[in-house]
Amino acid sequence: MAVVWKDEYSTGEPEIDKQHQILFKYLDDLEEHMEQGIDASYVSNLLDNIGLFTRSHFCYEEICMRRTKCPIASKNKQHHTKLLNAYTQYCKQFETEGVSNELVQKLHDFLESWLVNHILKIDTNLRACL
């Protein structure tokens, strides 16, 4: 079942919230494909798109946190690095092993956990700085 955007995920910065909602849509799309059957082409495109979008999003978010002197800015950057490292591992696993239900489920669980936990525990701290 898809994780749905809630007001509690809001950072108070409209562009960041818009970008987060796009990430939620990626997860929703993945869930739809999981129900219909996943193929290697879809997973390859998903990984490419999430990688490009996420790097751009992280950059924008980190700039906003630095600009507003958010006290959690360096912790946010550290989390982003860890998330990108985990993402890279999923890409490597896909390249070496190909698509599997196990990989897709792990990728789904990672994205869902990241979206909910990172946004609630880290990104929402930006609200107090705006």
Q: What labels describe this entry?
A:
0% strand; mainly alpha; 130 residues
Characterization of the model:
This protein has 130 residues and is an all-alpha fold. The chain has one domain (16-23, 38-129). 75% of the residues lie in helices and 0% in strands. The chain has four helices and no strands. The longest helix has 28 residues, at 40-67. The termini are far apart. 15% of the residues are buried. The model has no long low-confidence stretch (mean pLDDT 95).
* pLDDT averaged over residues: 95
Low-confidence stretches: none
Q: Biggest sheet, in brief? A: none
Order of helices and strands: HHHH
* Structural class label: mainly alpha
Q: What fraction, in percent, of the residue positions are helical?
A: over 70%
Nearest-angstrom radius of gyration?
15 Å
Q: What's the number of domains?
A: 1
Beta content comes to under 5%
Overall 3D geometry?
globular
Number of helices: 4
Q: What is the number of strand segments?
A: 0
Tell me briefly what this model is.
Helix content is 75%, strand content 0%.
